[in-house]
Each structure stands twice: as structure tokens, then as C-alpha cells.
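USER: Fancy drafting a protein?

ASSISTANT:
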Amino acid sequence: MKSDGIFEQNALNTLYQGGEKHMRCPKCSHTEDKVIDSRGARSGSVIRRRRMCLRCGYRFTTYEEIVKTKLRVIKRDGTHEDFDRQKMIGGIMRACEKRPVSAESIDAMVDGIMDALESEFEREVPGQAIGKKVMEGLEKLDEVAYVRFASVYRRFKDVNQFLSAVEGLIGDR
């Protein structure tokens, strides 16, 4: 448990009494509290609530969010694996290495890609769809990072394929 009173709403601090949910105070375990403030977080996908225990007065924060079905990736070779947001971020960060791209802009791009994938696909997403969305995002974010990512994603075999990607960028201007 964090010392600053921030807790995720989960089974550890939620009790079910008479069919109703009650938050349990992390300090005294009392089940009656008052919601002091509610506001959206993470672009509206999460609700952050400040609560105060009615017994001891301790203030704590809970987060409420929709539990989404985990996406599975269908890889080029037909195998399946769990979608890994960190793996996608790692590939994007490698492409953006030593480029003037902030971590915040990468996170915003990844959030947009995640939203698009979750609305477009229910359970399984082809790896090619992920790569295409990453390339679309990188093309807008940083052209050098786009070419770096494309060279790995499209498996460039020689410099001519690399030049074709660059010429495609120049032609789009």
C-alpha cells in the first residue's frame, strides 16, 4: 500500500454487503465513506474519486475504470501472443532514439493507437494492423523515426527499399 493514501479500487478494499459495494478505508477498514471529489482521468477512460472515511476521517483516492478484454496479437507466422503495450512503446522509442520526440508525445500516440485497436478489434488483432497504425503515427510525429521503424517493420533487404520509403515521404509533401 502506498503511504500517500492512493489505492486502486479492487477486491482488497471493496466489500460486498447486501449486494452493494462498499469501499473499505485503508487505514481503519470501516466501510462507510463520503466521496469528496470525482473527476475524469486518462482522457476520460478512468474516474478518480477522493474519499473520506466517516469513522477516522482518513482521505484516500480510488480509481474506477472499465475492464477491457485483453487483446491478442496474431503474428505473421500465425502464432498468437498477448498484446504488450510496453513492447510497442519500446519499438517506438528505439525508432525515436536521439530524435526531438518527447515521452509525452510517444505516450499520446500509443494511447491513440490503443483506442483505435480496441474499437476496431474485439479480441484478436493482426500484427500488421498494429505496425500500420504505428507507422501512421510516426509519419506524423517524426519522419526519421518513421523511416527507422519502417526499415525494421517492412524488413528492408537493401538500400533501394530504404530509398523508396524516403522518396515516398518526399512525394507526400
Notes: Residues 72-171 form one domain. Residues 1-20 have pLDDT under 50 and may be disordered. The first helix runs from residue 85 to 95.
